[in-house]
Write a structure and sequence with these properties.
103 residues, alpha+beta, five-stranded antiparallel β-sheet, 2 helices, 5 strands, 33% helix, globular
């Protein structure tokens, strides 16, 4: 019985630590530079194309779904027949620019 109580206590402590680490990793805050970039960017509209830039790169694509929870789903045209779907974390984006429509 003594070992069972100790085992349960270890599980409880371990679960609490995992929950705390997970909550901390998901509560990413934006820097003032990122917040300003998002505030100055155009409102994202489904079907329109944008460039999303962050410190490690950028991606060009059209918005597939309305942004929600700090994320936006976009579709990038790789070749004429190949497209990639990306989920862009708007909290990491530094710059957003609308691309001109292609005719």
């Amino acid at each position: 019985m003594k070992y069972l109580i100790g085992f349960c206590a270890c599980l409880l402590v371990g679960a609490s630590l995992c929950a705390a680490v997970f909550a901390q990793s998901n509560s990413r805050t934006t820097t003032p530079k990122q917040s300003a970039a998002i505030a100055q960017s155009p409102p994202l509209e489904v079907g329109k194309s944008y460039t999303f830039s962050w410190t490690q790169g950028s991606v060009h694509g059209s918005v597939v779904e309305v942004p929600r929870g700090g994320w936006v789903k976009i579709k990038e045209k790789v070749t004429e027949n190949v497209q990639r779907v990306h989920w862009v974390n708007l909290g990491l984006v530094i710059f957003i620019a609308e691309l001109p429509t292609q005719m």
